[in-house]
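Components:
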Amino acid sequence: MQEIIKDLVLKNNTKIFLIVLDGLGGLPIEGRTELETARTPNLDALARASATGLHMPVSYGITPGSGPGHLGIFGYDPLRWQIGRGVLEALGLGVELRNTDVAVRCNYATVQEGLIKDRRAGRIATEKGRRLTERLQKEISRIDEAEIIFTHGMEYRFAVVFRFPEPLDEGSAEVNDTDPQKTGKPPLRPVPSNHQSERVARIAEKLVERAKEILKDEDAANFILLRGIAQVPSIPAFEEVFGLKALAIAIYPMYRGLARLIGMDTPPVNGDIREEIEFMRDNLQDYDFFFVHVKKVDSYGEDGDFEGKAGKIEEFDAFLPDIRGLNPDVLIITGDHSTPSVMKSHSWHPVPLLIHSPYVLGGLSQAFTERECLKGELGILPAVNIIPLALANSGRLKKFGA
Amino acid sequence: MQEIIKDLVLKNNTKIFLIVLDGLGGLPIEGRTELETARTPNLDALARASATGLHMPVSYGITPGSGPGHLGIFGYDPLRWQIGRGVLEALGLGVELRNTDVAVRCNYATVQEGLIKDRRAGRIATEKGRRLTERLQKEISRIDEAEIIFTHGMEYRFAVVFRFPEPLDEGSAEVNDTDPQKTGKPPLRPVPSNHQSERVARIAEKLVERAKEILKDEDAANFILLRGIAQVPSIPAFEEVFGLKALAIAIYPMYRGLARLIGMDTPPVNGDIREEIEFMRDNLQDYDFFFVHVKKVDSYGEDGDFEGKAGKIEEFDAFLPDIRGLNPDVLIITGDHSTPSVMKSHSWHPVPLLIHSPYVLGGLSQAFTERECLKGELGILPAVNIIPLALANSGRLKKFGA
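Structure:
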């Protein structure tokens, strides 16, 4: 479908806003969901004047991680473009990944007489871990043809990037984890699962050996374990496919990182919803498309804090007039997946969606809730269709066929 | 999609019930469908507390036979896995097919001077037919490398299985019918349509020749015609794909046979709904998944007996408290296809569906009917998604992607 869209794309001066309330969808407690509980007069009024529905992030019954959740709403089939754990971890730590990179999630561990004694090196403090990671970076900057880039995370965790001179063939990072997931066992060797992945496995093996040598005098953190070795996928750029110059506005690095994978501009932003809107206002003239990510809705859901999630939605509602005041031609409000507070986790449930533009029926949903959106003109639709609808509603798609 | 699901499957101790009211969906007479006419207080209450919708067995406008109808709700794409007529006939006669088998639907016929005089051998009585079939079995137990297994049906009809020592290549049963569908013509020769099907064609030809010799002194049934020559498909097992140990509870052999094709356990059960529920109760500890098939809803529909169909639905409704009393974690009630009494046949209409679990919105359908299910949170969805939803609702699917 992307190929078809690409051929139909037109340019104009319209502005499209995609506001993502992370983990938006919910389930009822005593009959009402978080959205049904929150007082959201602005969202409800907008829903009444918008095309409404629910989007399916991946497929029926499939609970998406943040990677597939965002790729879908950015217009990319999440079954076609899979993002490995190492890549997501590195993005979350703010690493600016390139399509020549392989990313790895790492742990410090304690190994004695060849056996793993502690898979987390006694949960060493973040400060201690950071000093060790800086030392590794100082001693190891290159292995074979790859530049090696270390980035510390929390406690015993860090990420490593192998940066190659050129993009690797598909399958080049198919190398097993070295963490056997149990103590009392020896660490595993990184073994290539095919011919293409031999280079990455060799570098991983050398990395483990050199780190072992450097860390040999440490009591706890005397070894490193590698997990989720993954290649940065060569995804076609958002602007190339959809003709939209795009700005991602997100407080958390992981979401900026996901946007950067498809070539959106992703300057860092601090603060919360207010600061995100100000940032959008300041950059309004320079972009066609604005992705704004509101994280805390999901965080409260993950914590099982039903009231907190409803409260965060109310807080967003209060800012909605400011957003509408920027006069977007197309305003889309949705989530990347559902996070029902009762489940304390992401879920498979479809996600409320509204698209506001001059070209909608409207009048079908009385409020912006799961159940009211079911009555809407968009029905339940795969998430990848949201961007084509945004293009259509902004007059950016030619007729298909004569 | 099955490949994705397979990688995400978790095991736990939940119980999933899939209750299939065969031919459930209907069309109105004087404004009300069978479901809208039947008094079903228990189903209606359950629908109000469940995720509701309608499933599309195959595709818009496509009326499914029993094979594709069931494969879809078992989570297998019915366009990918096709079940030949000979296989379905043999399953209906209770033959325990293996993946090394080719099954054929056969008729006794009358041939005079090389031309077919009667394609049904004067509709000989079942008793007579059975004696002839027993004689054929006694005289013919093997042709070339295949064991030959005869099973008599009604009147002039029977099934033959060619059981090979090993599974055959795809396309090995692509051999034409020998029935020209008209009297006054000679029977056709079984001709292979490709290289792989030469073995089966040769055996079919020898079978016809030998049967002709054995039956040469019969007045009416002096020949056999072969139709629907079909290979048993090598479908991946339900437990392998979905991680569910499954018990099929069905009175009619064909439905047990369909379940057996995907490796469900299929002990024979006698009686009706009451006995099926008792059987489920007795086996509750030994399985994860229970497929219960209620046939008569369809039978009344096929007979054009609107009141009878509504009555059978009411009868099922009265047993619903017993089913819920078994405390399934996920309870699914639907049909394999629609059978509107006004059409006296299967139809293409989507089929009412409810999924009851703790993780639903609910409150959208006021009753379990075609029109009320349209208001539900599941929308109209392809049938193959029902099992993934059952897995999600029972906590048996990991998150997809990081």
